[in-house]
Amino acid sequence: xxxxxxGHVSILVSPKGAELQELWxxxxxxxxxxxxxxxxxxxxxxxxxxxxxxxNDEYMYQGKAYAMRQHGFARDQTFELVDQGPNSLTxxxxxxxxxxxxxxxxxxxxxxYTLTNQSLEIKHGVYNxxxxxxxxxxxxxxxxxxxxSLNEYFLDFGGDFKVKQHLITGxxxxxxxxxxxxxxxxxxxxxxxxxxxxxxxxxxxxxxxFGKNDGxxxxxxxxxxxxxxxxxxxxxxxxxxIEPWWGWADSLDSDSTxxxxxxxxxxxxxxxxxxxxxxxxx
Length: 282
Known about the structure:
Layout: E1 2-5, E2 9-14, E3 19-25, E4 46-47, E5 58-61, E6 64-67, E7 80-84, E8 88-94, H1 97-100, E9 108-116, E10 119-127, E11 134-136, E12 138-140, E13 143-145, E14 153-156, E15 161-169, E16 172-182, E17 186-187, E18 198-201, E19 207-212, E20 217-222, E21 228-232, E22 239-246, E23 265-267, E24 272-281
Antiparallel strand pairs: 1-2, 2-3, 4-12, 5-6, 7-8, 8-9, 9-10, 10-24, 11-23, 12-22, 13-22, 14-17, 14-19, 15-16, 18-21, 19-20, 20-24, 21-22
């Protein structure tokens, strides 16, 4: 386990999945949920090289079928610590025989955690060391601790936004949407998540605050360029997830071809692309 602190914020990161497992500041208890495998066996997984679930848990690429579980394999792989300074640490995952069974591309995935005053910045860098274009999606999935019922919490979207919520059937988008109004006091409830996550593609906002109805503000997640955001919990579970995504799950009518997958990203040989979000603690 890799600890890091700047005197204001402290974190603990596991080499397995480069996963953030604890997040503290001097005024609050640990904001990451206390994992219980009977409910959800993750803390804050890194999603790569897919976000969400593939139809039939597989995809086609250049005429060959590849099996891959929901959210990809990075969360279950051991990363190598390749850099650590007084306020940051970087972990690296590269392709291997194990990853080639699921994903035929060469890649380097770096996850960097940086402490800045009262914030934690999380950066994902994808590099293509090969001679062919790679296709991928990527996302964050931090789960935050709930003290009491979800009904006691709210989200702050920084303004009023009318968006389309993309509806889900059995982990896949069914093509339907419904109108949803998000505002600075969006009250959370267990009923909102009785079907599945709330997903907004190409969100018009760049931050989401998270706090309790009694006025206690816990944190704000900032992201400037996400492709989608997922809000998720399990009914009655003591956690709530705010998930910045670059990509998303398959639709029910997907043809399972990776080249045609909606939301897929492409990276040319010897090129790098970075994706980041931050957690500001209050």
